[in-house]
Each structure stands twice: as structure tokens, then as C-alpha cells.
Amino acid sequence: MRTDTYPPYTHGGGRGWRDTATRYALLPLRIFLGVTFIYAGLDKLTDSAFMKDGGAGSIGDTMRAVRDSSAIPALVDLALKNPVGFGYAIALGELAVGIGVLIGLLTRLAALGGALISLSLWLTVSWASDPYYYGNDLIYLMAWLPFVLAGAPYLSLDALWHNRRRQRAGGLD
Fold first, then answer.
1. First to last CA, the chain
2. CA dihedral of residues 12, 13, 14, 19 (deg, nearest 10)
3. Which residue of 25, 31, 126, 148 could cross-link 137, Cys pair, CB 3.0 to 4.6 Å?
């Protein structure tokens, strides 16, 4: 039987370090995912070899190399119809997702975008990783899910807008 007691978690919250730690527990993950996706998008956009149909390090050669080992070859075939356009779509998507999550703007939608990008990469590029947990895209997919569910309730534009709407409604939530 436990004899220690902790105050219940509330949004207005307790003032103890446990409550603060609980409230901001996802913030390091949010920062990591945001910065990583911004970096990934910028890296693709600035890599002259990546945004090509063929050649070493190109999106086209990468997609052709993973086609037969992917879970959904038809998805790879779709991307191969215009590999450069697909490369730009992924890069700009990563950039938008990273910025959205980092500043907390439409966080659930941005996280859903990040989860879909990670899912598509897992089913194509890293599907053949053996054992499965060596493929980093599955881990990213799982890391996005808390933000799809919870959004960014603290230190975000979403929270700021939510608080303003609540104040305009007379404090009712």
C-alpha cells in the first residue's frame, strides 16, 4: 500500500516540480522533432545531388533501390513517376511539419503530417531494416503520435490562441 500522496494533475496546476515536469514532459520531444524535420527538409532542398532523377545520392536512385524491398511497391512506383517533384514534396512537407510543431502552430495537423511522412518512409525506404527496430522511420512515426493526440498545450501558438478564445468566452472552457 502506498502512503505517499501527490496532488492531482490539473491544468491550472500545482506548483510542485512533479507537476511542472508532467506539464512539460513532451516539450523536449517536440523541440527534437521540430528541429530534426526542419533540418531534414533544408538538407534535401540544399543538396544538389538529392533533387535529381538519377545519379549517386539522388531521390530517383534511392527510390529505385528500395522499390523491390518496400512494403508497398506501388507507392514507390507513384513517386518514380516524378522523383524530383516527390523529393520537393517530401522536403517542403518536412519543413512545414517541423516549423508547425516547433512553434506549436496547428500542432495536431503538423504532427499528423509528420506521422504520414514517417509512415510512408517506413513502408518504403526503411521497410527492409532487419530487425525492424533498426529502421528509424518507425520510431519517428511513434514519436509523432502523442502530438497528434495531445497537440502542444504549452509554449505554443495553439495554446495562446486557445487562451484568448477562452478569455473572450468569459473564461468558460
1. 36
2. -150
3. 126
Instruction: Spell out a b/e string for 39-64, using b for 16 or more CB atoms within 10 Å of the CB, else e.
Output: ebbeebeeeeebbbeeeeebbbbbbe
Q: Which of 46, 23, 138, 125 is nearest to 92 (CA)?
A: 46
**Cell representation of residue 164:** 484568448
Which residues have a Cβ under 8 Å from the Cβ of 45 and sit 6 or more positions away?
51, 88, 91, 92, 95
pTM: 0.84
Q: What would the pLDDT profile of 50-97 be if each residue is shown by its tens digit?
A: 999 999 999 999 999 999 999 999 999 999 999 999 999 999 999 999
AA letter at 71: A
Residue 59's closest CA among 125, 2, 156? 125
Q: Is 10 helix (H, G, I), strand (E, B) or coil?
A: coil
